């Protein structure tokens, strides 16, 4: 089986759209269709099925995708290790992050030291980073720990805590702290439940015997901050993000008696080859956080 055919198959399996996949590959749609037919003939079974304008993987296609991803990953790892013998450097790192603000300063300083390394950072929920690592679409994750998976390696960075953020014009803006039960009397704009910061807050509230019902759920911290600025409600976000917000129209108030906390750390697949660029980026992050960022 030609490796080129597997590359074509993987792109189509991700896009599930022949035209989009062909554009990504830089070939025509008829060429892609022909190549997929060759692969299906070699395997003796259809890999895709069409229903109207939609394309789906067959059961055989799903099986091939799982193994093809592993083959692609192993070939990439082999190239990296061989390149290391030749003194070559990796040109790209793909990082999933639970908040881009966690990496901004580190990215700037790392790029200044290593301008030839291409960094792709995606702001993702922890579950999405987890999946990206397991499917070899990401090299590194910066997430809330623990992330339980025997295929992953974790390295802690720092402890994150949540804080209460509200417009400075609100009557609560001058209080020194706020308790979890008091949150029930405030309109809240919170993360969606798929985000670990929200899960951490919900867990702390359950332990306190209360349940929060936000008026709005959003997926980005910036949007929550803007809502709070406009006086629509309060939000609860990681203290590390609150510390870098440039808004002067907000009050940042500690949660009491003890703020929900969670460890933030690095995760990567145990089978991932730590080439010089990836290893250097990990060490760079650890050094910055040990020095207080």
Automatic annotation (TrEMBL):
InterPro entries on file: LysR_HTH_N, LysR_subst-bd
Keyword Transit peptide annotated: no
Top-level division of the source organism's lineage: Bacteria
Pfam families from the UniProt entry: HTH_1, LysR_substrate
Annotated keywords: DNA-binding, Transcription, Transcription regulation
Record family assignment: Belongs to the LysR transcriptional regulatory family.
UniProt protein name: LysR family transcriptional regulator
Source organism of the structure: Paenibacillus brevis
Lineage: Bacteria, Bacillati, Bacillota, Bacilli, Bacillales
